[in-house]
Amino acid sequence: MSSITRQKVMRHLDIVGQIQPALHQATHAPSPDMIDNAHFRAYTRSPHDVGGEPDVSITWEEKEEEVWEHNTFVTCEVLAWRGVWNAEERRRRQNVEVGQTQYLGLPYYGRWLLTAAKILVDKQFVTATELQDKVAEVRKRYE
Amino acid sequence: MSKPHYDREHHVKKATGIGDPQCFKGEAPAARFKVGDKVRIKDLPDLFYTRTQGYTRGAEGTISRLVYESPPAEDESWDNTENVEWFYSLVFDMQELWPNYPEAYAGDTVETEIPEHYLEAV
User: Fold this and answer.
1) Cβ separation B55–A8 shorter than 8 A
2) Is residue A21 domain-shared with residue A83, that is, in the same domain?
3) Are residues A128 and A76 in the same domain?
4) Rounded to an integer, what distance in angstroms lies between the CA atom of residue A18 and that of residue A36?
5) In this predicted structure, what is the pLDDT of residue A35?
6) Which chain A residues are within 8 Å of B48, Cβ to Cβ?
7) pLDDT digits (tens, 9 = 90+) for A28-42
8) DSSP code of A51?
9) CA dihedral A44, A46, A47, A50 (to 10 degrees)
10) N or C: less crowded end of chain A, CB within 10 Å?
């Protein structure tokens, strides 16, 4: 545990633990001198790079997957078969591009579903307006 | 922004019926390391994307298996599949990774896959 790299890794994990999303805490627009290299790395790291940062324990629950979760999985696989993304781009978008707050805050397949919609907009298969109109149309069915 | 014109199905056409990473078999340069080698994980920049866990960086591990050839995740995630390399399964001693790891569990290990360009000989 003596090398400088290992000391940096341990400090990195400590900072990452400290910047877990917190509600009602003003961290907006810090001045540049408030963000040193270690903090820049902690903020820009891939949120899925977990392991070793201080955190609280969570309850393990054995739970069957729900129908919408299976449907979401199949939808994402079909997007791969049609060349919209490969598995690694899917992981990057679901686990990293969503950012720390959504990564820790949304259900697992919620991130899958959100990302499936997002890539169709990002790659211009549908426009954001088309997607929003469709969501509005579906909502009306339940009013 | 204009719509991309590249063949967006190039990856799925290559992998269909074979699998990924199996479809990249034979494309990597000769492996630089072998089973049993001790290596250290380079602390390369992790900007935008990586799957080389932060907690392995700077640590020494032992190669237990050459697992497959693939573009690194950092490339494949943006559909860049030209630079294929060997992936190694590495075993780390938990006491090497974590300060104050309990002596009662000395001998605990963790095993994970890391691409060759992160490895340097010890």
Assistant:
1) no
2) no
3) yes
4) 15
5) 87
6) 44, 46, 96
7) 788 888 888 998 998
8) S
9) -120
10) C
Full-model pTM? 0.87
Chain A CB contacts of B79 under 8 Å are: 86, 89
Please state the φ and ψ torsions of residue B118, each to the nearest 5 degrees. -90, -5
Burial class (CB in 10 A: 0-12, 13-18, 19+), A106: middle
Task: Give the whole-angstrom CA distance, residue A48 versus residue A105.
Answer: 13
Q: What is the ipTM of this complex?
A: 0.89
Partner residue opposite A88 with nearest CB, options B43, B57, B76: B76
Residue A96: give its domain's CATH number: 1.10.472.20
Phi-psi region of A112 (alpha: psi -120 to 50; beta: other; left: phi over 0): alpha
Round to whole Å and give the CA distance between A94 and A100: 11
Q: Is the Cα torsion angle B53, B58, B59, B62 positive or negative in sign?
A: positive
For the domain B10-121, what is the CATH code?
Answer: 2.30.30.50
Among the partner residues B10, B54, B97, nearest to A49 by beta-carbon distance: B54
